[in-house]
Amino acid sequence: MSSPCPDAEWLEPDGRGGFASGTVSGVRTRRYHALLLPATTPPTGRMVLVNGFDAWVSVGARREALSAQRYAPDVVHPDGARRLVGFASEPWPRWTYRLEGGAVVEQEIVARHGAALVLVAWRLAARGSAIGQAHPSPAADRPAPVTLSVRPFLSGRDYHALHHENPSLDFAAEVAGERVRWQPYAGVPAVVATSNGRYVHEPDWYRSFLYAEERARGLDCIEDLAAPGVFHFDLEGGEAVLLLAVAGDEPADATRPALARARELRTVERRRRAAFASRLERSADAYLVGRGAGRTIVAGYPWFGDWGRDTFIALRGLCLATGRFDDARGILRAWTDAVSGGMLPNRFPERGGAPEYNTVDAALWYVIATHDYVAARAAAGAPAPADERARLRAASDAILAGYAAGARFGIRADADGLLAAGEPGVQLTWMDAKVGDRVVTPRIGKPVEVQALWLNALHVGSRTSERWRELFTRGHASFLRRFWNEEAGGLFDVVDCDHRPGVVDPACRPNQIFAVGGLPLALLDGARARRLVDTVAARLLTPLGLRSLAPGEPGYVGRYAGGVRARDGAYHQGTAWPWLLGAFVEAWVRVRGETPEAKRAARERFLAPLWRHLDEAGLGHVSEIADGDPPHTPRGCPFQAWSLGEALRLDRVVLV
After folding, report:
1. Which of 23, 6, 644 is nearest to 280 (CA)?
2. Does the pLDDT at position 562 exceed 80?
3. What burial class does residue 531 get, using C-beta atoms within 10 Å of its C-beta: 0-12 exposed, 13-18 middle, 19+ buried?
4. DSSP states of 126-173 as a string?
5. pLDDT band with cut points at 50, 70 and 90 for residue 630
6. Cβ atoms of 524 and 545 closer than 8 Å
């Protein structure tokens, strides 16, 4: 096993919106790093129940740590990370530790799909010698015993919050055979631990854990955790297992030994994961979860829920490119029922309440996703049933009709056939950062990618209804006439800014790429299309995506760092976005005739850096964003659905 960057992060999703996650080194750097973090109202209502653990091995009288924690002000203790000699992320996270006397201990963490249940297991892979022991065994021919001790850390908090020492926490443990049950707070799900070790109740507080990533993001970063007791295992007697579950999700048969349950979980998960054709497909599965009786896509781990535009963009790669048509159908059906006045929600709130409809593009991406779904099924020889096509078409028509007549937030088809949108104080496009009451990139008027989506949606609609054909023709002609910026060799980012006729925004942004790639219909072709792609490549392209604003433009910020205001101010002002590579690479090969030679060149030039990135940040996944300036450090959410989805779409659809 090789060891990637110690700060690289692993993810074990449970298939319901919950997960376990951490770093290669074992040091928890985020408030979201946890062993048991279930979604109590899948896929929302996430809570941290078991944050982590300390583990140490005793060989005779010598005691050596396998774990490491960071405490305020900036102290790492114990020193388990220095014994780490190997790590592998497939088929699940596995660590190899070498102790002073040569003993080798392996550790693994496996989440059970479909349940809030996580297995942590250790085994003695090599015995080593007694050399270096502080107190050697008195019998030269009898090796010193090797034991493992594990102390779990508990909280019981919302996953966005932090936990602090308080008198309300209940340390009580119910012990019955191999089973230990804790419920730190009334109203919080109880935790059931099942192990083949011996539990000793030793309640205590561990104070001032420091989360370095939270500190770097300008957020509160200190936490206290409850440590109710310690599990002791004889490693020489065989594998040590600790199963952690939300009460109700633990294995039902109380008579089955923990070791047998662990072996069964491992067998089931190995078989399930082996069924995926590739590492990317296994990673894609992490984002596909249930919502009620339907399906949806988690936009990213560890802190995103399900968002409208993210879902429909990601669906094309995560589901359609991988042939997961049943999942795609379930997702589209679930969102179809949310159409309101032609709009779809930007997101569903974490704690219930009314969906938020502050987005102009989510509904248009839905139309594109339904078109691609029907086309992908037909191409695979499994056409969608007529009643299903009719339902999706009706939803798409309702979106077009709502937008044409006029919807919330000033969304309406203008006399020129283009789509106007926006009003002060509301962020409607994907460039949606807001600092306090200030929308960083308001883009009120007629944003270029919104026109590309609108015209593509009209084109799709016109295939089954003449109602949309004239509006498409008029809008397309207006687009060609009004958006071309000859001086820049590309397109204006917004025309009729702030709804003022003729006012344009010439900022060089990546949104123009959707006029040539990323959507079924390219709005530009010939020399103009080639010039646009060349301009984007020269000014916006990085190995990890397109910059959201070109260097040299007013307001450019090349590094996404600092507190909340600084980061939100940089989010769409130069930060690079991997998901945009999907549209760019598709445009790049289109203007080169989509030849086999162009596709091979695109794989070598654009996909190779993405494949290397799979081992840099979120292991097996693609990050949300990266710095616009070299060395283009990955930032933001390390596991992002649309970033991975577009990589899959390129690999399986565009470049084949």
Report:
1. 644
2. yes
3. middle
4. E---STT-SS--SSTTSPPPEEEEEEEEEEEEETTS-----TT----E
5. very high
6. no
pLDDT tens across 422-473, in order? 999 999 999 998 888 899 999 999 999 999 999 999 999 999 999 999 999 9
For residue 178 the two structure tokens come to 């191999």
DSSP of 267-328, one letter per residue? Answer: HHHHHHHHTSSSHHHHHHHTTEEEETTEEEE--EETT---BHHHHHHHHIIIIITTT-HHHH
Report whether 529 contacts 591 (CB < 8 A): yes
How many domains does the structure of the chain reveal? 2
Using alpha carbons only, how large is the chain's radius of gyration in Å?
27
Place of tokens 């993001």: 217
What's the pLDDT tens digit per position in 249-261?
887 676 789 999 9
Within its chain, how far is the Cα of 226 from the centroid? 29
CATH of residue 369's domain is: 1.50.10.10
pTM of the entire predicted model:
0.94
* Contact by Cβ (8 Å): 95, 52: no
Residue 235 belongs to domain spanning: 9-274
Same domain for 154 and 76, yes or no, is: yes
SS3 444: coil
Phi, psi (rounded to 5 degrees) for 186: -65, 140
- Range in 235-239, 282-286, 354-358 the model is least confident about: 354-358
Does a structural domain hold residue 1?
no
Both structure tokens of 320 = 């359609």
Sheet containing strand 494-495, strands side by side: 446-447, 494-495, 504-505
DSSP for 220-240, written as a single string: --EEEEEEEEEEEEEGGGS-E
> 429: helix, coil or strand?
coil
Domain boundary among 258, 274, 290: 274
Does 278 have pLDDT greater than 50?
yes
Residue 4, domain member (yes or no)? no
User: Which of 373, 243, 386, 384 minimizes the C-alpha distance to 318?
Assistant: 373
* Residues whose CB falls within 8 Å of the CB of residue 413, separated by 6 or more in sequence, listed in order: 403, 404, 419, 420, 471, 475
Compute the mean pLDDT over every residue in the chain, rounded to the nearest whole number: 95
Instruction: Report yes or no on 499 lying in a domain.
Output: yes
Domain contains 2? no
CA distance 447 to 114: 41
| Alpha-carbon span 340 to 280, nearest angstrom | 35
* Closest listed residue to residue 11, CA positions, set 44, 35, 29: 35
